[in-house]
Every structure is written in C-alpha cells, then in structure tokens.
Amino acid sequence: MPAPFTVPAAADRILSGAVHYFRVLPEQWRERLGLLRAMGLDTIETYVPWNLHEPRPGEYDFSGLADFEGFLRTAADCGLRAIVRPGPYICAEWDNGGLPSWLRAEAEIPLRCADPRFLAPVDRWFDVLIPMLARHQATRGGNVVMVQVENEYGSYGSDAAYLRHLADGLTARGIDVPLVTADGPTELMLTAGTVPGVRATLNFGSRTAESYRALHALRPGEPELCMEFWDGWFDHYGLGHHTRDAEDAAKTLDELLGRGGSVNLYMAHGGTNFGFHAGANHDPATSTYLPTITSYDYDAPLSEDGRPTAKYWAIREVLGRYTQLPPMPEVDERRLPNTLVALDARLPLLGCISELTSGTVATATPPSFEELGHAYGIAVYRTRIPGPRGKAEPLSVEGLRDRAHVFVDGAPAGILERDGLDAVPLTTPAGGAEVTLVVEAMGRVNYGPLTGERKGVTGAVKHGFQVQHGWTVDPLDLEDLSTLPWERAADPAVSELPGPAFHRGVLHVDEPRDGFLELPGGIKGYVWVNGFCLGRYWNRGPQRRLYLPWPLLHSGANEIIVLELDQDDVEAFDALAVRDEPDLGYAAPPSTPWSFED
C-alpha cells in the first residue's frame, strides 16, 4: 500500500498529468495509471463532466465510466495524488463543456454567471458531488490534494460574484485542500478569472518565461504551477491530425521545471470521446462549426490505446532529473489480428422509428432537442406541405444544428448541413408532399460564447418564404439498440429502403484484445460493440479507425452494429475491417496551436 498522502505546501513541486476517467474504460484505469506513475508522475488530474453524471435533472449516475470515486481509489492504489476540476464548466473538448443540455430546456438562461436560474441547478449538483469529492481529500485519508474553481473563466466572462459563489460553495461543502483557478497567461484572462485568496495557475504550452511574466505582474511571488502544459492537441473533422514533436515538448517541460515550478501535463493520456460526448468549437472569424473527432489521443505520452510513445520516453527522461523514477511495468502490446467482418443485415432507420422513439411529440413548430428532453443523437421531424405548387421552391431549415437528411414522400431529396447546402428544391403535387427530416446533432460547442447552444431544428422550416407548421417529432433513443427489429431485415421491401440504416455483423475473437475498426465504404455514422457506442466516424477524416478497447469484447461472437447515415450503396458497404494499429489520419498543416500567439 502507498504511504498516506499529504497536502503539498505551496512551494512543493507537483508532477501531475491529466487523465480523464470518463475517456478510459474502468478495466483499463489501473494499467494506464501505473504507466503514468512509472513515467515519473506523482499526481493525476481529472475533470468531472456534469452532463455525464446528471443526464436528466435529479437523475445521477456514478457507475461504469462515471465511477468517479472508483477512479480516485484506483489512482491512490497506484501511489498517485489527485487534482480534481469539478467545473461546473470544464471545456475539455467535451459536449457543451460538461454543462447539461437540459439547462436550456425551457429558456436560454444565462450560463456561467451569478444568475439564480443557473446557480440553483449548479448548487443542487454540487450538493451531490462535492461531499463525495470531500471524503477523498488527503486531509481525510484520501489522495485529493487540490480542487479547481470553474475553468478558464477569464477566457469567457467577468462575473467575480459567480467565481466567489463557487469558491465559497466548495469550502462550505467540505473542501479544505487548496483551491486554485486556471487561466491563459494574459493580463485580461488572469484579471477576470482569478479569485482573491485563491491560488492562480496558468495554462500554456510554450514561452514559459513570458507566460509567467503576466502572472507575477498580478500576483507577485505566486508559486508557479502550469495547470495545463499542452504537450499535444486535439483534432476536428476535416482539419488534419495535430502532433507535437516529442523533443520540443520535453525541452519546454524541462525549461518549466528548471524554474522550480510544478506542472500538470495536458494530456498525459487522452483516451476516447466515446458515444455522443465529443464536443465542438466555433471559429468566429469564419463562422465555421468545427466538431471534434472521436479519438482524444491528443498526441499524448500514452497513446489512445495506452501504449508509451516516443513522447512518453522523452518526458520520462526529463522527469527523471527531478524525481526518482519507479520501475517500468510490463506493457501488453498484443492486438487483435487483422480481419474482415461481414455486415450481412441491413435495417433502415426510418423502418424502426416506433421501436426507438422515446415518445412521439406533436407540435405546431419544430422543437429543439433540449425542448424534447433529448440530449444527443438523432430526431426525426415530419410534416406535410400542402399542394399544388407547380414551381420548385427551396426547402430550408433555419438554425439547423447540425445536419439533416431530407426525404420527400419517402425518397431522398438531399442533405442539409449547418455550414453547407442551405436548401433543397421541392415541388409539391396536388395532394401535397410528406417531408421528413432526419436530424443529427454533432457535439455542442464547448468553448466560447456559443457554449450552451441548442441542437436539432432551432428555427423555422420554410418552403420558399412560407413557414411550415404541423409537426410530429420522434427523438430516437440510440443508447439501447436491443429493441431493433432485425427480423424485418429479411424482407427486401424493408431492407432495401433508402436512407440511413443500421448494419449488423459478428466479430469472432479467441481472446479479448485491443483493436481498431475501419469502415471501408462507410461515409458517416456511429458504431456499437456489444451494445456500447464507440462513437462517430466520418470519412472527412482525419481519423480513419476507431479504437476498440478489449473490455468491450468477450471470447466468441461479438455483435457490431453500424448506423451508416450517408452511404446508400449496399454493395459498397458490406464489411468492416479490424486492424491491429491505429490510423489517426493525415497531418494538420504545420502550426503550434498550443501557443497563445500563433
């Protein structure tokens, strides 16, 4: 058993690394944490995503990927202290920055400020979470040595009363280890994001001396802690895979530690954005929506599948100059053998709405996902446009978030995208036309003023200039696919219907091992393995293969279900491939996104 943990003094060095329990399967926590301890870390850091733990108001989940306390106990067993960042906002390239979508079910209430309509649900959540966190503090025999107030608030707002409310609420609920804030290294960010009496820390990836100059100008003598040392970066669909040279990251880390400061590597191990939780960014300069890919590899020292990289060894060498390195554990490098899995059953999405809907809603105007109480995935909107209209008029969706397959009388008519094609032509016959929109929500924006955006159809649907009324909407529950009526896939009249469809195959394995799934012929969709959603895929790249962790598999037959949204050619999409190596895709253009000035 490790020695009891103590709270470090302000001047004591902390060698920490970020690993998020919700991005790694619990069966893999111990192995990954053991490797980080062997790299030279003495502490790990994690966020707490509110929307994972309270998916619906008053319904709490702390099981499986959400077993927050189990993760802290495992870290303690591995000899690691913990820094916890409970938000309520976390950014983290996580859907909505961790804020639950239901916060805006009835109105677009202000977020991240001292408005009572926001503080009331935050306080209720903290009444549940913080006592759990408090019992794991080093002051009570646990391993938590530091707790963060909010996250990078100086990059967002200026409500000092809000930050004070959070800090006071943490201490009132039993937090007695040091509180900290974390912000970018500019005067503006630090002025707005810090709290009097609470230690300020910085987030940066380069220009160490320059970054700390801003902190010391405002807080003379403040001990140096880089809460996020960006040793890599995340990726968006269509924009290339970011990497940071291992020697460059190690050199900057050595520079930082050589000043006597402390560090938290962001990330030490990135993991995966499983399911529907990957977030998004929005570029205000180009008004472009940028959804984050499923992999959160981050070019971190430990790869997405938990293998030490060249960066791991370079950073371990640096950390060895400042601490005694534990021995290296054995690393299991075995992977599933390369093989093909036939997709031999096809079930159109529109043929099984009754089995998947969480309840049909009839309404005059199309509601958003939040108004439907539907957090993620897909909803099907239907209306009838009266006829006759002999001239083609554009069918458009205002405020589409984020993508819609359009069907007219059951036939595909086009795909509308948030930042792409904005209308499809439609001519209605004498009897009118049945219009169906299969609307997919990608990740909610997790950083900046668009955090808290609604999903689905958030404006009017128009045919020409005329607003269309009279809608029925089916939010589809994609968390549980056990109700899919696969017996209908044997009927050609059903299986050959066009549009998004589920495809099923069986992967046979002798022994569960890690692997990677590739979808040749697939364009865009989602993958489930034995009922667990791995996440999204999209041939826009850069990611070409989804990580398949071994705990999802069992010896023998394993069911794989793919929801392919765009590919109608059944012959072009009749198999998926299991591979023994990852493929995170083409390289991003040379840049240094971890620098505030580049």
From TrEMBL:
Gene3D superfamilies listed in its UniProt record: Galactose-binding domain-like, Glycosidases
Chain ranges of the Glycoside hydrolase 35 catalytic domain: 12-320
Entry keywords, A to Z: Glycosidase, Hydrolase
Any one Gene Ontology BP term: carbohydrate metabolic process
Molecular functions (GO terms): beta-galactosidase activity
Residue ranges occupied by any Beta-galactosidase galactose-binding domain in the UniProt entry: 500-558
Family: Belongs to the glycosyl hydrolase 35 family.
Protein name: Beta-galactosidase
Source organism of this protein record: Actinospica durhamensis
Lineage of producing organism: Bacteria, Bacillati, Actinomycetota, Actinomycetes, Catenulisporales
